[in-house]
Design a protein that fits this description.
Blueprint lengths: L1 H10 L4 E3 L7 H12 L7 E3 L4 H10 L6 E4 L2 H12 L5 E4 L5 E4 L5 H13 L11 E5 L3 H13 L19 H16 L3 E4 L16 E4 L6 H4 L6 E7 L2 H9 L8 E3 L3 H10 L6 E2 L18 E2 L4 H6 L26
Parallel strand pairs: 1-2, 3-4, 5-6, 5-10, 6-9, 8-9, 10-11
Antiparallel strand pairs: 4-12, 7-8
Helix pairs in contact: 5-6
InterPro entries: Ald_DH/histidinol_DH (IPR016161), Ald_DH_C (IPR016163), Ald_DH_CS_CYS (IPR016160), Ald_DH_CS_GLU (IPR029510), Ald_DH_N (IPR016162), Aldehyde_DH_dom (IPR015590)
Keywords: NAD, Oxidoreductase, Sodium
GO biological process, one term: cellular detoxification of aldehyde
Amino acid sequence: MATWKIAPALAAGCAAILKPSKLASVTCLELGEICKEIGLPHGVLNIVTGLGHEAGASLASHPDVDKISFTGSSATGSKIMTTAAQLVKPVSLELGGKSPIVVFEDVDLDKVAEWTVFGCFFTNGQICSATSRLIVHESIAVEFVDKLVKWAENIKISDPLEEGCRLGPIVSEAHYKKVLNCISSAKSEGATILTGGRRPEHLKKGYFVEPTIITDVTTSMQIWREEVFGPVLAVKTFSTEEEAINLANDTHYGLGSAVMSNNLERCERLSKALQAGIVWINCAQPSFIQALWGGIKRSGFGRELGEWGLENYLSVKQVTRYTSDEPWGWYQSPSKL
């Protein structure tokens, strides 16, 4: 994700400062070493590690930083935007999400079950575009969710360096506790934990959480409305296309969304109706560097990747040249009075 920002910034001719997450800085430091090895001039790319409220806040407020591009939580994005506003500094924000995946009754259940599991549990659910709200047609809900449970329970949970690992640990102890608390809160509010929701029995240490599927969810529950950023899928049913769209759009967020149906006209209707910057049709989460990435509402604004990503780091200048030999002629020349 760092390269999503650094590559277009450098290509646009900017010097750049990269401030990685305090929890995931090592790969960004390695990127800096690679840039030194290939001969990138000193000072073109600068990597600053540290805490967000110290290093990050200082960068956001510094008068010599002309542009901020931030990926992270909506709360932090709001603070950065407030700080940047004091200097009328442009920002691009790629923030949180609570993305829906809408599954209609005409699909191949096994095929869509895998996409649903991938869309939510890929990268352990620690991705802002995770399709963590399943909205499934009531006529297939029982059978489909039963398949999902089997798919989820078949996922290999292990050390990420182990061959075949498909779900690793949560990034930190604090976030591990937050994910478990979100699951516990859902249960206390009346939701049903169909599978997961705890540490895997075979892993005695590490911040591992089993893939979790939660049903009997209402739209007022925290598990339905707030981003968990972990391997947790909340499920609701619908009866009509209109109801599905309303459920999908009933959120403060608007980053990703997915629609699963063999009816391509229906897919096209939903792709227009869903309030999100990204819509996947009969898949969930594939991204391509040629295609734009970004959200609406509290998921932020601005687009990364492709030509749109380059434009983030460019400022258009108008240059007008007068080519006529004739005077402008708006005022009467004193020499002709």
